[in-house]
Every structure is written in C-alpha cells, then in structure tokens.
C-alpha cells in the first residue's frame, strides 16, 4: 500500500521502481523522503510515522478526487462530441431527403408534362 500510494502521488516514481512490493527497500526510503520533503513533514527522513500516514492518506484522497473529476469531464466531452456528430448526421440525412424529394418532384412534373404534350 505504501509503495503503490507513493507511485500514485510522486510523478517521477513508478511501481516498477520498487523491486519487491511490500518490502522496505532503498527505493521505498527515497520515495518516502521525497514525499516528506515535498510536504515539509517533520521527523526523520526516510521513516514513516503517524503524521506521514495521515498526510499520505489525505493526498491520495485528493488525487483520486482530482482524477475522477478529470475522467468525468473527459466522458462528458466525449458524450457531447458524440451527440454533435449524431445531430450533424441527422441534419445531413434530412437535407439529403429534401434534395431527393425535390429531384423526384421535378422528375415527376417533367414526365407528366411530357405525357400531357403527347
């Protein structure tokens, strides 16, 4: 959980940086230190305490909310663009139908006039 949370929060850290998840290693210590320094947490660098866990949980929640908002906005944008495409297609179909009816009307009138002239 610690390593996954740090990889989620620290841009230059990925889950692949940790050789074995769940085990304390040098990469974990570096990531913990980076988090502590970024958030100006007091205490020994590279070790975790109650303040560290509290701040880590807060930051993970904030990031999750932010990511969810981005996802929702992206989904809304996709939905709006899909609706716009569908509306454009319907408008094009309606215009094509009108053109077809106009052409058929002229053709019919032309045939009727030709037949009447005979």
Automatic annotation (TrEMBL):
Give positions of region: Disordered.
Answer: 68-99
* Compositional bias per record (Basic and acidic residues), positions renumbered to this chain: 68-91
Q: What is this protein called?
A: Uncharacterized protein
Species name? Zooxanthella nutricula
């Amino acid at each position: 959980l610690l390593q996954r949370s740090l990889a989620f929060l620290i841009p230059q850290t990925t889950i692949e940086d940790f050789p074995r998840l769940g085990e304390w290693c040098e990469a974990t210590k570096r990531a913990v230190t980076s988090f502590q320094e970024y958030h100006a947490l007091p205490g020994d660098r590279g070790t975790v305490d109650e303040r560290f866990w509290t701040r880590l949980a807060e930051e993970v929640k904030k990031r999750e909310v932010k990511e969810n908002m981005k996802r929702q906005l992206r989904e809304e944008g996709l939905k709006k663009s899909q609706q716009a495409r569908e509306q454009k297609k319907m408008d094009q179909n309606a215009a094509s139908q009108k053109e077809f009816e106009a052409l058929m009307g002229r053709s019919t009138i032309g045939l009727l006039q030709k037949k009447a002239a005979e």
